[in-house]
Write a structure and sequence with these properties.
Distance between the termini: 22 Å
Protein name: 2,3-bisphosphoglycerate-dependent phosphoglycerate mutase
Strand content: 5-15%
CATH class: Alpha Beta
Catalytic activity: (2R)-2-phosphoglycerate = (2R)-3-phosphoglycerate
Bound molecules: 2-phosphoglyceric acid
Helix content: 25-40%
Pathway: Carbohydrate degradation; glycolysis; pyruvate from D-glyceraldehyde 3-phosphate: step 3/5
Family: Belongs to the phosphoglycerate mutase family. BPG-dependent PGAM subfamily.
Number of domains: 1
Shape: globular
Radius of gyration: 17 Å
Structural class: alpha/beta
Largest sheet: 6 strands, mixed
Number of helices: 8
Low-confidence stretches: none
CATH architecture: 3-Layer(aba) Sandwich
Function: Catalyzes the interconversion of 2-phosphoglycerate and 3-phosphoglycerate.
């Protein structure tokens, strides 16, 4: 049996302000730091250790990972950072307040933008400062890989190749893996691992800063999953 630990970053400043975040690189809130430390303590108490870590290029996930690894005295393990694990790119919604956006466009529309896997949020243009092509950390990406907007299906389409090429080989080698990522990149991964329908993934909400354990068989089929609290 193989175990993989998934953790959504601790609460961010924009989670706190209820703003669409996506690829905006906002920091953890004070509460987010506390949540990450607590996650590390829980993993330690339950005897977890890791051989390799995977995270995004966004500081809220990276910092959460580091705080967890520090608690475990595991800051030395190899750490792989990739844009493939970034939050879903929220297009022109990034930065807007979710409640104000619901007042303007209607709660139904905002719910679809947030949770319908087929619904694409309004796109940014390439001239928009939020366009990732202007950010050094994405300089290796081809133009076609730089999103203007993403729905959950688009996120699945970039998370899965990374899962297959980088994370699965580590699991096959029986390495203990931790992934520190985001609400929607983890939903994308779980949609695949758990074979969820669109209706099921719409209802899936992942809390910030709580380790989520997936137990997998040798063929990487899910046996069960549970939160460590
Ligand atoms: O704003 C975001 O990037 C995400 C995660 O915080 O929000 P939502 O839950 O609406 O997908």
């Amino acid at each position: 049996m193989k175990k993989i630990v998934l953790i959504r970053h601790g609460e961010s400043l924009w989670n706190q302000e209820n703003r669409f975040t996506g690829w905006t690189d906002v920091d953890l809130s004070e509460n987010g730091y506390i949540q990450a430390k607590k996650a590390g303590e829980i993993l330690k108490k339950n005897g977890y250790n890791f051989d390799v870590a995977f995270t995004s290029l966004l500081k809220r996930a990276i910092k959460t990972l580091h705080i967890v690894l520090e608690e475990l005295d595991h800051l030395w393990i190899p750490e792989n950072k990739s844009w493939h694990l970034n939050e879903r790119f929220y297009g022109a919604l990034q930065g807007l307040n979710k409640l104000e956006t619901a007042d303007k466009y209607g709660a139904d529309q905002v719910y679809k933008w947030r949770r319908d896997p087929d619904e694409e949020p309004p796109a940014v243009t390439k001239e928009d400062p939020r366009y990732p092509g202007n950010d050094l950390r994405y300089q290796e990406l081809k133009e076609a890989e730089l999103p203007l907007s993403e729905n959950l299906n688009d996120t699945v389409a970039r998370v899965l190749p990374y899962w297959q090429s980088e994370i699965v080989p580590a699991l096959v080698e029986n390495k203990h893996v931790i992934i520190s990522a985001h609400g929607n990149s983890l939903r994308a991964l779980i949609k695949y691992i758990d074979n969820l329908t669109n209706e099921e993934v719409i209802a899936l909400e992942i809390p910030t800063g709580i380790p989520l354990v997936y137990e997998l068989d040798d063929d990487l089929n899910k046996i069960r999953h549970y939160y460590l609290k």
